[in-house]
Amino acid sequence: MDTVRDLFRGAATSTNSYSIYHGVDDQDGAELHVEENHDGSHDTISKKSWQPQVSQQCKKILIGVSVTALVAFLIGILVAYGSCSKCKNNEPSEDSPYERPQSEEPSILHWSDLRDLFYAYLKDGEDMERNIRRASRSPHPTGSDENKDLAQFVLQNFKTYGLDHTWIDNHFVELQYPDSRSQNTLKIMDADNKTVEDIFIDRNLYSPYSATGSVVAGLVYANFGSKDDFKMLEGFGVNVSRQLVIVRAGNINFAEKVYNAESAGAAGVLIFPDTKEDTAIYGHVHLGSGDPNTPGFPSFNHTQFPSYKSAGLPKIPAQPISTSSARKLLSKLTGGNPPSLWNGLSFSLSGLGPELQSPSHRLQLEVHNVARSVELFNVFGSVTGRSEPEHYIVVGAQRDSWGPGAAKSAVGTAILLELARTISVMVKNGFQPHRSLLFVSWDAGDFGSVGATEWLEGYLSMLHLKAAAYMSLDTAVLGDEMFVAKSSPVFKKLIEFVIKKVDNPRRSQQTIYDFIVSQYKSDWQSEVFLPLAMDTDAFAFTAFGGVPALEFSFVEESQKYQYLDTMKDTYDSLNAVVNGRLPAIALSVAQVAGLSLIKLIHDNILPLDYTEYNSVLLKHVLELSRHQQTLKSLGLDFDWLSSARGDYTRATKSLKSAVSQSDLNNEKMVQTFNVRIMRVEFYFLSQYVSAITSPYRHILVGRGEHTVQALLDCVRQTPDKIDPEDLRKKLALFTWTVKGAANALSGEVWELQKSF
User: Fold this and answer.
1) Can you name the residues that pair with 50 across neighbouring β-strands?
2) Would you say the pTM of this structure is higher than 0.70?
3) Which of 281, 520, 524, 613 would bridge with 273, disulfide CB 3.0–4.6 Å?
4) pLDDT for the residue numbered 112
């Protein structure tokens, strides 16, 4: 059994202590046999029977030996055989893959050995394909029977896998749906308020959280609806005040488009997808996440919070329309020439508006969405850690979808199930994670990560003490050309490490890392590592909960997956984009996710590189320093901020040095280090603003006057437009949050003076 010897060779010299238990069958031995390919990879696992062989000749010889010698000899044989059996009998039985072994004697594995075990237990794409199809066979929005059935399906699988704990976390929220009695409408009206033409709107298509009511106005084309787009319209002399604006989907989310339009004075917003095919796209318009009726509070059925609405709710109506409806409207616009920067539409644009070709004509938009109380079902399964069970690694995927949701939710759900199954098999047969692992299927993701955010709000007071990291599996496959990771900076080295171990799905003999470097050379990191997107559960975990988060996916470089958030987001549509290899691409994501999770739950020291924030803070301070003269004219400077940034850098170097010089076999010391590391993101939550009025309290990725972005926006103005007291406040909020992060990372209070 050379393969088995190779599997456990060199364990004593391993720097990462991965433990595995070996079970022993009293009836007959079992030998683990891993078939090895020519390239050294392991594909299949089989079980062989093993019985000791004693010849008749040996028996005759033994009869002639004295009783004492016979007993001693047999004892030696039995001890040697028992030791060998323990080493070999590591594989679960085929009939019961989740059976826990009886023996509790650990041995040590290298990282490469643990990786091989993960690959050995990870199934091929057959289960992946079946689960993606199951999760996308029909639309299953929150509150529907289809979504409840899918929640039960996920829960039942978690139970079948034999996870340590399985449960459902319920929330009662008020969500917005189309009014079954009054359909949303869009019409062209004449001067006498008579209908000239009805513009088709699918009765099931709407934007949750839109303001309701009727608007009669002209129409202005505003490109993607960004702040720069509205500034450009202002420069062209196009007035959007009290007009409807029409924008194309993309670049920023629906909520940001509506917020920018409202800030510019628009009366309403129409959103369309610029695609060759005629389709319509769905999206909520709440500039935030969670239930907007209880911002900062959890929506449990026993809570009685005061009536308070999120500031991110729009005050103007918004409505998605189809590509064909948009073309019809845009063909009627006159006035102004579209700038060359706005080229790229799949059809020609006759003007910017607000006038239509018939000067007396106006548009009438009516939105009649209604609020309805809905019960959410977040489905949980967990594996308990052995030495740090109170510290969690959380991995989640959105389950609900307005459409079939193959790319939006089904792929993530399938990967979640496969990871839960694979890692539970490893754990039940010996793998011992240091930290606990939570698998979560979130509800109401299409309404702004409501399920994930409500859970965060419900346990906010304890999660910063327990949740070490969050991984999102949403929109994991949108193509197969390029791998991208949206994450907190602390994950960069972990992701780089893992993608060097996983094959590129397009070329099996080339890793993801090698492919990326061959494409982008030294600039590869700027192409792969992107900031967290606002409208995601990963963003909520970091910006609201202070938990480092990451999400990654395969995408198309040449064009975006055009069916996301549409009724055409089916298995066949997504499979066609990746040339019929959807299960294989999903399996590649599962490999990246699984290896990352194994590192996170089992490395002695959490593999989160807190030193990455040194360069992030330096970049922002350098950008601010360009405006030093502006501050001096107002009697201010950046000296204290520069000092705080220096303190943070020294704190990270001090912690890194302490870890490298410490005895990492001391569990208490390791846990002390890990607590400081896992709370780095939490340290960047501003302690000076309310989670109710400013839920995204993170000073580097959040939103509000406490953030570095607010500070930059302020100093970039001309001195005559800057309010000195407002700038002083923003500078203080940011500076002292950085200083507090440095203090917290440095350790105990009696160490601070020595550190700084």
Assistant:
1) 29
2) yes
3) 281
4) 79
